[in-house]
Specification:
By secondary structure, the chain is α/β, with parallel strands linked by helices. Helices cover 45% and strands 15% of the residues. The termini are far apart. Bound molecules: (3S,4R)-3-hydroxy-2-oxopiperidin-4-yl beta-D-xylopyranoside.
Length: 359
């Protein structure tokens, strides 16, 4: 018997839908779970990976409402020569985000790393100010209305540099003094008054690491100065590269720090979340359980703070994880710091994210 057109269509649809059910895509979208808790969720990506790997791109599109350029908007990507800008990779990422309906968290306008080789080590004050203002004005205005928020200054605090104000002695600080921060935020704000401007740093997470606890104080002092002087800063970023081998010491002191930041009228973003399993022993199942538990315990505290508006992981799948590459395991096995495994399947960490967003 000849099937009716309707039946044929239904059959076709059923066939088309069947594999999707068995695929990792069946895992509920993290971005929707995050949205139910009033938060944005996204991840850092390299635009060329999204182009080369459609299955990975589909995973990112499904789960992420925010894309962060892992490297594409850093100075060494954008600035091949002193007077030249190359927006190729950054524009590609902007197009991919648009196609996915994702917003962009820009990363990063000033950092002491990822600087191009041509940049002088010790520029004069005049030269440094010209470079800083030019770069930020040009980049932020190009993506005005397309990049919703920016890491304006990345890793500005370094207590080991032993300045009384705790600021890192970066090329920017050496040339311009501590005012480089104000200059960076003001320039970004003038180029896109609607963009949310962020100061992001690492080492603010653990309650039982004394230098991190001290760094929270240094960061608060810096934020107070910036706010007192009326600088256009809107958020603080916690990178949150967490350590699977450490006990997950996240409790009241972390909650208090977040509240103190919020009391300054600032939002809080988790900007680079992952959990290293470099030094974790045991088989993947055991390591995955510890990694997931670390994600859960950290976010349990962090998500109790209403000022926390966005959670971004540093990658999404173990297939592409700079953290796993930079911190190789002694046994030679591939690191598993991300929510999805190298086959793009959700791990316990993905379930942990889903749970904390739904709690
Ligand atoms: C890392 C990228 O993931 C790598 O691909 C690159 O080689 C070096 O930079 N803190 C940051 C990020 O703010 O920009 C860094 O990203 C990881 C640490």
């Amino acid at each position: 018997m000849r099937p009716t057109r309707r039946r044929a269509l239904a059959g076709g649809l059923a066939l088309a839908a069947a594999p999707a059910i068995a695929q990792p895509a069946a895992f509920p979208p993290l971005t929707q779970a995050a949205a139910r808790s009033g938060r944005l969720f996204g991840c850092a990506v390299e635009p060329h990976r999204l182009d080369a790997d459609p299955a990975f791109a589909a995973l990112v599109a499904r789960h992420c409402g925010v894309l962060v350029p892992e490297n594409a908007m850093k100075w060494n990507a954008l600035r091949p020569a002193p007077e030249t800008f190359d927006f190729g990779a950054a524009d590609r990422l902007a197009a991919q985000a648009k196609a996915m309906g994702a917003r962009i968290h820009g990363h990063c306008l000033l950092w002491h790393e990822a600087l191009p080789a041509w940049l002088p080590n010790d520029p004069s004050r005049r030269e440094a100010e010209r470079l800083l203002r030019d770069h930020i004005a040009r980049v932020v205005s190009r993506y005005r209305g397309r990049v919703a928020s920016w890491d304006v200054v990345n890793e500005a605090v370094e207590r080991n540099d032993r300045r009384p104000d705790g600021l890192r002695i970066s090329p920017w600080l050496r040339a311009l003094g501590p005012d480089y921060l104000a200059m960076a935020f003001e320039t970004a704000h003038a180029a896109d008054p609607a963009a949310r401007l962020t100061l992001s740093d690492y080492g603010l997470e653990y309650d039982d690491v004394s230098w991190m606890v001290e760094k929270r104080g240094t960061m608060l002092d810096l934020l107070r100065r910036l706010k007192r002087d009326g600088r256009p800063i809107h958020a603080v970023g916690l990178q949150a590269h967490l350590l699977g081998e450490r006990p997950a010491a996240f409790g009241q002191p972390l909650a208090t720090f977040l509240r103190q930041v919020a009391d300054l009228g600032l939002e809080i973003y988790v900007t680079e979340l992952d959990v290293k399993d470099q030094a974790l022993e045991g088989d993947p199942a055991r390591r995955d359980a510890v990694v997931a538990d670390t994600y859960r315990r950290f976010l349990d505290v962090v998500l109790r703070e209403p000022a926390v508006r966005m959670i971004n992981t540093w990658g999404l799948s173990d297939r592409y994880s700079a953290t796993a590459d930079f911190f190789p395991r002694a046994d030679g096995s591939k690191g598993r710091p991300m929510p999805f495994d190298a086959d793009l399947k959700p791990k316990l960490a993905a379930h942990a994210l889903l749970t904390v967003f739904s709690d």
